[in-house]
Design brief:
Low-confidence stretches: 43-50
Structural class: alpha+beta
Number of strands: 7
Shape: elongated
Order of helices and strands: EHEEEHEEE
Radius of gyration: 24 Å
Length: 173
């Protein structure tokens, strides 16, 4: 018995069928779902302790003479005294929490470039168009179902999810 044909797209699917398509939704068997991830290690075990951020003290206002023009008003980009200071990890996790649920099912059309098959069976590449690029990974358990070979320059539609790779602070499909 041959491989099972792909299921038809759900009604109203806005992405037309393309010749070279593959699905990136499946996770590798060895990687648990986000809800099943183990808790981070206790402070001090594997991570260096974070130092408390040093307070940022604004410089004292310059003394000006009565004839000097008034200083320009602060712009919208000037930091405010109430800005919350977060760690890189907190910012990355916050961004992950915003991006991953919003783009949990997405189809992206582009040209495959920087193709790098790994000895693990995963396939790493960049998906690009005229204006932007995004890192992409096709995990081994999905790659075995491909009916074509990946190569640089191939026009594809990737169906998958956007995920944030926290260690590098990068997002990928």
């Amino acid at each position: 018995m041959g491989p099972k044909p792909p299921a038809p797209p759900p009604p109203g699917d806005p992405v037309p069928k393309e010749r070279n398509q593959f699905d990136l939704f499946a996770r590798p068997a060895s990687k648990p779902a986000p809800a099943e991830r183990p808790a981070p290690p206790p402070r001090g075990s594997l991570e260096p302790p974070l130092r408390a951020p040093s307070p940022i003290v604004p410089p004292a206002p310059p003394v000006r003479s009565a004839n000097a023009p008034a200083a320009p008003a602060p712009t919208a980009t000037a930091p405010t005294a109430t800005a919350r200071v977060v760690s890189v990890t907190e910012l990355t996790r916050d961004l992950k929490g915003l991006l991953e649920p919003r783009f949990s099912r997405i189809a992206v059309r582009g040209e495959l470039s920087n193709y790098r098959p790994a000895s693990s069976g995963h396939h790493y590449f960049t998906l690009k168009d005229q204006g932007a690029t995004i890192a992409a990974v096709l995990f081994r358990n999905e790659a075995v179902r491909l009916k074509f070979k990946l190569k640089d320059g191939l026009a594809v539609v990737c169906r998958g999810r956007v995920s944030v790779y926290e260690q590098r602070g990068q997002y990928q499909i």
